[in-house]
Design brief:
By secondary structure, the protein is an alpha/beta fold. It has a single domain, classed as Rossmann fold (3-Layer(aba) Sandwich), CATH 3.40.50. It contains 5 helices and 5 strands. It has a 5-stranded parallel beta sheet, with helices on both faces. Helix 4 links the parallel strand 4 and strand 5 (101-104).
Length: 147
């Protein structure tokens, strides 16, 4: 389990698939996060108080992830948003909606924890081991060089 400073992050996971919802929640709990889960984006909008990071699926029947982000921002919430999706073009949609993070499905648990950690610390001065926080996601896929 991670040691979070100054406190563990509060993470809200929003996904209409109960298996994915529980898997993501269990992974985050195992790393010391305080996790809230809901299958309903509408219900999630009522649970955003004191949430640091929202992990939200892009494709849900009630409301898609980018519409959820816009609704949350219009209500004045300033938490960080991590969109997850297997849909082509979702990265650009997430960036346009103001999401600070994006992960393509299938999601690796290390990737998930790394992104939640990065987004959590965007709200704080980074600890010395963290370095400088990365900028919000861009609509273009990143080009990684292999060493």
């Amino acid at each position: 389990m991670r040691t979070w400073r100054p406190r563990p992050p509060v993470v809200l996971v929003v996904d209409d698939d109960p298996d994915i919802l529980r898997l993501l929640g269990m992974c985050l709990e195992a790393e010391g996060c305080e996790v809230r889960e809901t299958m309903s984006p509408g219900a999630a909008l009522e649970r955003l108080d004191r949430v640091d990071v929202v992990v939200v699926d892009q494709r849900m029947p009630e409301m898609n992830g980018t519409d959820f982000i816009e609704a949350a921002r219009s209500r004045g919430y300033d938490c960080r948003f991590l969109v997850i999706s297997g849909k082509r073009g979702a990265r650009a949609e997430a960036a346009q909606a103001g999401a600070e993070g994006f992960l393509a499905k299938p999601i690796g648990m290390r990737e998930l924890i790394g992104e939640v950690e990065r987004l959590f610390y965007l709200g704080f001065a980074p600890p010395s081991h963290m370095g400088t926080p990365r900028a919000p996601i861009s609509s273009a896929p990143s080009s990684k060089s292999s060493s």
